[in-house]
Amino acid sequence: AVGPARDSEGLPGWWDGTKETLETLGIPVEQMQLVLDLLEKLDPELRESLVDLLGGSGFTDFLDLAGDALGIAGMVVDFVDAFASHSDLPLDEALVFSFATVGLGFAADKGIEFVSEKVGAALGTAIFPGGGTAAGFIIGKVVGAGLSAGYDALDDQFGVTENAAEAVLDVYRGAKDLAEAAWGAVETVADVAENVVDGAVDLAGNVV
Predict the structure, then answer these.
(1) H-type helices in the chain, by residue range?
(2) Assuming Cys at both sites, which of 38, 98, 113, 182 could form a disulfide with 83, CB separation 3.0 to 4.6 Å?
(3) In Å, how far from its chain's centre is CA 194?
(4) 3-state SS class at 14
(5) Interval 12-36: pLDDT, tens
(6) Rounded CA gap, 69 and 89, in Å?
(7) Torsion of Cα atoms, 61 then 65 then 71 then 74, to 10°
(8) Mean pLDDT lowest for which of 64-68, 132-136, 185-189?
(9) Distance from C-alpha of 6 to C-alpha of 21, rounded to nearest angstrom
(10) Rounded to whole angstroms, how far apart are CA atoms 153 and 167?
(11) Residues 6+ away with beta carbon under 8 Å from 3
């Protein structure tokens, strides 16, 4: 049977659906075991949200960064591991940290602009599912600014990806605060986007 080498009676009830998602992504049994171990430690609601994300088209597009099955398996494990390590954060912030942690690993090879586009699109879909392109566009621009800051921090800190991902998270948190203020001050999504993105770029400059 495909799946972790554990007696089926010892597997949690939610695992079957998760296993199907991982099989669709082409994750080998060894990596499935790692994912299972990490998911079991999460709050049930967070786990359900994360598994839904793993099966979504936005995440699948993000996995294209890897280019092959072995790379995809590593991305999924690293993503779930980063999420689990920050599962005490609000869902959106844990996702920002996880996408940034994994995405920054491809920046040198793929280019920070391309990676930012992939991460921003995936996050927009994850945080605002069905919310249209406006929210995704804003998040993409904000995270792009944060990733650029994080990538600069990565250079300065000799490749400490977690520190760089924290820099991205700082920019995102600041942009969230700006967005809340901007909604009360302006009327159109375009104005909000401009204010928040400009603010995020300023924040990113201060982080590095």
Answers:
(1) 15-24, 29-39, 44-54, 57-63, 69-85, 91-104, 107-110, 112-127, 133-156, 161-185, 189-207
(2) 98
(3) 23
(4) coil
(5) 888 988 999 999 888 999 899 999 9
(6) 30
(7) -70
(8) 185-189
(9) 18
(10) 8
(11) 11, 15, 19, 29, 32
